[in-house]
Amino acid sequence: MPIDDDCWVYYINTDLMLTAPVNLAPLAQAMAPGDLPEESISCLHDSQADGDLYRSVFEAFGPQGSYPTPDESIRALLDAIEQLPQALQPLWQACTKKTLDIGYNSGVTPRSVSHPIPIDTLLRMQSLGIDLCITVYSVGE
Question: Considering the entire predicted model, what is its pTM?
Answer without folding.
Answer: 0.88
